[in-house]
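Preliminary data (for renewal application), flavin-adenine dinucleotide complex.
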Amino acid sequence: MPLKIAILGAGISGVSLARMLGDDGHSVVVFERSERAGGLCKSRVVDGFTFDEAGGHIMFSKRADVMDWMKARCGGEAGVVRTERQTRIRWHDRWVPYPFENGVGHLTKEAIVDCLDGYVESYVQRRLGEPCPESFGKWIAWRMGEGFARHFMVPYNQKIWKCDLDTMSSGWVAGRVPEAPMRDILASAVGFDTEGYGHQSVFWFPKSGGFERMVRGTIDGGRFTLRCGARVEQVRREREGFSVDGERYDLVVNTAPLPQIADAIADLPAALRDEIRALRPISLVNVLIGVRADEPPPPLSWIYLPFPEQGQANRVTYFSNYAPGNAPPGHASYMAEVTHRGELRPDRRWAMELCRALDGAGVLDVERVVTLDWVDSEFAYIDQNLEFPARIARVREWFDESGYVTFGRFARYEYHNSDQCIARAMEVRAHVAEIARTGRPARPRFA
Ligand SMILES: Cc1cc2nc3c(=O)[nH]c(=O)nc-3n(C[C@H](O)[C@H](O)[C@H](O)COP(=O)(O)OP(=O)(O)OC[C@H]3O[C@@H](n4cnc5c(N)ncnc54)[C@H](O)[C@@H]3O)c2cc1C
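Predicted structure:
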């Protein structure tokens, strides 16, 4: 039996699920508080340059079905550009391949010895049964050793997370960061090229329209109603089903960041409302930089900037390399990401200062900057503090038990990229099919 379903939030999670459920014959309305759908996947055009708003996004997935789904939304193979990933760390005056463990041979001899010594020591300790530490700061040394920690991991992560790394939980990296084989590290140290992170060694990007093209292609031709400028004010469970701003639905699926929707959920217990308030995000200012360029920039995808003297940006994307249409002829574009915890108030002077620091780091020529803009995204990264794992488990449990479905980067607080959001949407699609088949509410099952 077809269901009437409300989806809250029209980021990639919301619109991809809406498209799937519409194809299955359900009646679907998506509520989006912004004037435009897309959430973190939005792009914008400034002075003829196309930029992604929330930092550099690429299309990749470990799952072939998800990858095909994403490409199909962009017009198939003809609608995307394929790129071999070229990433570097700006390590003092050197360009070191990423991941850092695979680039160790490019460091100074002293730093190579530090890194190998520490890596072997940590490897032995782990084999002797040293347990995985609870804190992220200690996890770095446990997993990579003191040398890698000091020469890259600690300064880089301090720049992103803006906190004492020992106050962060290690739960989010365990299982996400693949362990570099000892042989690869030794090979790299003596000068062989080794490759890490196989599934990201190639990525795709929409030929035009920026990453948002994938969202547009999901909406276009979708059999669902999208209401933009429609901030949801009140949701509640009723005897049979739910009401959303007074309208009746069989099911509500939330994909909006929990702190932005919690006040609207009338039946949320007060204690959980407080827990959700405590789920503070890490925010991100993405600085959009257009430059005059007689020649194309080096064929890099993005670079990491671990050190304070390189300015506040921790990552710079060479965005015009993703798709030729991203910059007008004779120009190139970059995006520089700066994280913060609510304290940053970007303005033009600040953005120019950032460009000067990038000039000093040998990334771009500040005299050639012709376009400068920025976007501040409140919800960019999850604050992985030590209380987070238990807190989010309690919040998820309430939603899963109560009959709501909540999924998405900040609707479930999972450190997911858009491909994983789409994979989650596929799981929710199966969940809805079960409810429609049995006519009974059920607890969603997430892998
Ligand atoms: C710096 C950075 C780099 C990234 N790089 C990549 C990458 O390379 N590749 C990749 O695939 N992914 C990448 N991601 C992740 C990707 O952006 C997210 O996984 C994805 O966009 C999350 O989509 P979502 O729909 O879950 O959430 P969101 O995009 O946050 O969408 C939630 C929507 O809910 C709306 N909303 C909020 N409150 C309400 C309300 N009360 N009523 C109605 N609507 C509401 C919001 O306006 C928003 O549109 C990156 C993310 C960041 C921050």
